[in-house]
Every structure is written in structure tokens, then in C-alpha cells.
TrEMBL record:
Lineage: Bacteria, Pseudomonadati, Bacteroidota, Flavobacteriia, Flavobacteriales
CDD domains documented for this protein: HTH_XRE (cd00093)
Domain of life: Bacteria
Ranges for domain HTH cro/C1-type: 14-67
Coiled-coil residue spans: 100-127
Descriptive protein name: XRE family transcriptional regulator
Keywords, alphabetical: Coiled coil
């Protein structure tokens, strides 16, 4: 016997998008101005009215169509495409050690300026004490 899964359960799609965005139900509820229980009810609903779906989409930073057409398999295919070396250039255009040494030199200069500022402050305070 074959069990057909429901791919158009809007509530599950909302829940999964929320989880992928690292958002808790409480946070989404706060964004929507509703209770956490109301968010739970939305996520358990197979269908959500268009107006509420628009609000949820805006709070999640996606479009209503993005929620309706969300497919977890396509997300995995998208992320798996990053393993394809032809997808982007992996050649580094600079020497990371040079960048590290530049940062070290900059820190050294900043430290020397800080030390000089402290020396100037001490000299000024000593000068004030001599005047008294």
C-alpha cells in the first residue's frame, strides 16, 4: 500500500521556512502581533487564508508565492550545487598570510599610537603637578 504525502500543507511549509530562518514560534508570533499558540495553529493548518499568508510571508522575509511553492527537495538541490566546483571560482586572489601580516602591522601602529598618547597624558599631568 502506497501512502501519498501532502506536499501542499501550507502550515508545514511555514514551519519549515521559519526553522530554516532560525526563528522561534515566539518570535514569529511577536512579529505578527499574535500568540505563540496562534502561530502553532497556523503551522498545523493545511490551508491559510491569503491575507494571513501575506502577513506571515512578510514576517519571514519571503513572498507568499515563496511559501506556496516551497519544496524542501529544491532547497537541498540548491545547497548541493555549491559542491559543484564549476559553480564558482575557488581560486584565492590574495595571499591570506599577507593579509594577516598587514593586520598585525596595523595593530602594532595603533598600539604605538596608544602608548604615545598615554605618555603625552602622563607628561601633561606631571607638568600640572609641578605647577602646584
Amino acid at each position: 500500500m502506497q501512502t501519498k504525502t501532502k506536499n501542499n500543507h501550507i502550515g508545514r511549509k511555514i514551519s519549515r521556512i521559519r526553522e530554516l530562518r532560525g526563528m522561534k514560534q515566539e518570535t514569529l508570533a511577536e512579529e505578527l502581533g499574535i500568540s505563540q499558540q496562534a502561530v502553532s495553529n497556523i503551522e498545523n493548518s493545511e490551508k491559510v487564508d491569503d491575507a494571513k499568508l501575506e502577513e506571515v510571508a512578510k514576517a519571514l522575509g519571503v513572498t507568499k508565492e515563496g511559501i506556496q511553492q516551497f519544496n524542501e527537495e529544491s532547497i537541498f538541490n540548491y545547497f548541493n550545487s555549491f559542491h559543484d566546483s564549476s559553480a564558482f571560482n575557488t581560486h584565492c586572489t590574495f595571499n591570506p598570510l599577507d593579509k594577516l601580516m598587514d593586520a598585525h602591522e596595523e595593530n602594532k601602529k595603533l598600539y604605538e599610537r596608544l602608548v604615545q598618547a598615554e605618555k603625552d597624558k602622563v607628561a601633561y599631568l606631571e607638568q600640572l603637578l609641578k605647577k602646584k
